[in-house]
Design goal:
The protein has 11 helices and 5 strands, in the order ααααααβββαβαβααα. It has 282 residues and is of the alpha/beta class. It has a 5-stranded mixed β-sheet with strand order 3-2-1-4-5. Strand 2 and strand 3 form a beta hairpin. Helix 4 crosses helix 5 and helix 5 crosses helix 6.
Length: 282
């Protein structure tokens, strides 16, 4: 089509044909030939591309206020489109889920996915039928100085998504035991099975002292602890990144955040409920 437009313009500019004669010869309207001549600054020596017929605006486009509200909610807690959609509906803003996703993508609020990453099947894990059947535990390493670290132990129950965390100066097996026992005192259910990676803080001494069934995830398979890895990123984005690298300061801020996470924050994996709402069901 672009070549045909180019030839039509050349008939007018170099062979002296009238636009009406070219229109009769090509089968197009005279107005189309005139527009092609205007769109060809090179005088017919380059193809004239087809212009998109897509409209510049849509009668049902989202208002700037709604777009700004979607972006503000995303930047506030970095929640996913499904959660933002529910929050907008709760605020009385009628908008579709697909529109929320398009706004997040158009405003670069969603990172591009790496197509090179491949999905790997995982081994079967213990059946999870009630709270405490499988509790994942891990450690977040935070740098205080170039040579000094502090450690935030994290724990999450797969059935209810109830979570707990606390900061320590050391990451030893004894520290892991103390953390699990403290988490058990705060949890409204009993732990029956723990799962961790192969870190030194979850060694044989930990397994012997904890007196709870314990299993390790597969080596180099972080998806085995997927729920906890997601929680680790969430607590860093929403809490730890804004705190000084000090154990006391972190432990002062964690109870307030954990209360929000367990009692107010909606979770897609449990049908937009909070962990506290899930516990009485079992």
């Amino acid at each position: 089509m672009g070549r045909l437009r180019m030839e039509a313009v050349r008939l007018v500019k170099y062979r002296g044909w009238t636009t009406s004669k070219v229109a009769q010869y090509t089968g197009y309207s005279q107005s189309a030939i005139v527009k092609w001549c205007r769109r060809s600054p090179s005088g017919g020596w380059h193809h004239i591309p087809t212009q998109s017929a897509r409209p510049h605006t849509h009668p049902r486009t989202l208002s700037p206020e709604v777009v700004r509200r979607i972006v503000a909610l995303r930047l506030e807690r970095h929640r996913c489109a499904e959660i933002l959609h529910r929050q907008l509906l709760a605020e009385g803003i009628t908008v579709s889920l697909s529109s929320v996703k398009r706004v997040l993508k158009r405003t670069n609020c969603i990172p591009e996915r790496d197509g090179r990453k491949r999905w790997h099947a995982s081994q079967p894990r213990p059946d999870v039928e009630k709270p405490g059947d499988l509790v994942q535990i891990d450690t977040i390493h935070l740098m205080q100085t170039e040579k000094k670290r502090l450690y935030v132990f994290t724990l999450i129950d797969l059935k209810t998504r109830w979570a707990y965390a606390k900061a320590y100066r050391e990451a030893r097996a004894g520290t892991s035991v103390a953390f699990v026992r403290e988490a058990q005192r705060h949890a409204p259910f009993s732990f029956h099975h723990l799962q961790s990676d192969h870190g030194s803080e979850f060694s044989r001494y930990f397994k012997h002292m904890i007196r709870i069934r314990h299993r390790h995830s597969r080596v180099r398979k972080p998806n085995d602890n997927a729920h906890l890895e997601r929680f680790n990123r969430t607590i860093q984005d929403e809490c730890l990144d804004d705190l000084p690298r000090d154990v006391a300061a972190i432990n002062r801020a964690l109870p307030k955040y954990l209360k929000y996470y367990n009692e107010e924050r909606m979770h897609m994996g449990i049908n937009f409920n909070t962990p506290l709402q899930m516990i009485p069901r079992y």
